Amino acid sequence: MTRPGPIPPKPASRQGKGSVWRFIRDFRRDILSAQSERLYTAWMAEFRGPFIHSFTCNDPKLVDLILRRRPMDFPKSPRMAAGLQPLLGNSSFISNGETWLHQRRIIDPAFEGGRLRDAFPAMSAATEAGVARLAPLADGRDIDIEPQTSHIAADVIFRTLFSIPIENAIAARVFEAFRDHQDAQPMVNLGGLIALPRWARLHSRRVRDSARRIRGLIRELVTARAAEIAAGTAPPDLATKIMTTPDPQTGNRFSPPEMIDEVATFFLAGHETGASALAWALFLLAENPEWQDRLADEAARHPTPDFAAVKSLSVARAVFREALRLYPPVAMTVRQCRRPEMLRDRHAPRGAQLVLSSWHLHRHQRLWNDPDVFDPGRWETENGKTCAREAYIPFSAGARACPGAGFAMIEGPLILSALARAYRFEPGATRPVPVMRLTLRGKSGIALRLTPRAPTA
Ligand code: HEM
């Protein structure tokens, strides 16, 4: 039995109803703390504002309906797309209908099991490089772990997608420009997702500039790869697979502009999310030394896991899943009713916004035992197993679920395990406060102290 550590940080919620304008004001500051406390117990909450009619859906039956049973009737909301469009164009992350089906028919084969096995050595190399990069920082002083996990996750994406390490000149510039883009994204655009009218969601020049810079660099990578494919010299990585796979229904391959949209998406969806999940997982381990020791013991038993062995890193998997539950990197997403619907006992008109909040669903008090407690052991309990099926959507669910979920569930445990084998993590001087930016981040970073872990006898 592992003793639970302190309750992990959770932003204070809005109490009572309050005015719509107060909600919008709070929302612009921080989406999570603007949400009502009621969302941790309600099955559904209706919100009518001056520019919006929305329903936050926590009832597992509604989540199932929207994501799994009838996804085509609940397309992605254009409000959400608007915030991401300068960077992602019309990629699979924001498109709908036939375009989206075509994109997924090409992308999905690149993330099948066999392909992940092929990508594994690149992931492993990025992990080892990440462990080495942390060595000079492991002197017991406070460091912000987020830039470090970003660096590792970005390296994984570049190595698996384009067979280049983060030290490559273009990769390094893309990584840099992404940092700028993340900083430049005002809350309001992310929250375009939920409540704001179009005029309030216009992009700043900085957002547009950083997006243009990133897309220009990705264009260079895609053009060079197209030439290598034509010359028969392209490495067999994810980019080559995606660029050479025809849509099985139409026979069409991605055009260069389509490929730029997708690469920007893989980079954003793949590295921001992984970085966020790893940073929160390390913080949770720092506050729960018993789990950290269990993880380090497991890691010492599997010092250089191969693809098959990652499956047996059960402590690392359980910790990573629990971190994704408490701190889901994509904390909310929004769908839209294509036609009028009855949701529970309420009438939802065509165009109503449906908010699926993994943040609230994963901490719902009527579903989970001890929802706010960090307990990787919960996945072995009946409640944990039921909730994993019905109330756990860190990668979304159904046809529109994250195509990189399998990739992430290898990458995350692999990196956690390697880091816990090399270092001991302790909490820094200040506790992080979760805020929703492009992904779920610490308001002022996530402070941790690292020291080298003595090898076990
Ligand atoms: C811990 C890591 C990750 C998490 C938590 C995560 C989470 C998610 C979630 C929740 C969605 C659905 C978003 C929505 O419905 O609005 C999504 C979509 C997507 N993710 Fe991931 N993701 C992760 C890693 C990756 C990786 C490694 C890749 C690819 C390299 C990737 C590529 C995508 C793409 C292309 C989509 C759009 C799918 C669609 O709409 O059809 N993700 N991801």
TrEMBL record:
SUPFAM superfamilies: Cytochrome P450. PANTHER family: BIFUNCTIONAL ALBAFLAVENONE MONOOXYGENASE_TERPENE SYNTHASE (PTHR24291:SF50), CYTOCHROME P450 FAMILY 4 (PTHR24291). This is Cytochrome P450. PROSITE patterns: CYTOCHROME_P450. Keywords: Heme, Iron, Metal-binding, Monooxygenase, Oxidoreductase. It comes from Paracoccus mangrovi. The keyword Metal-binding applies. Belongs to the cytochrome P450 family.
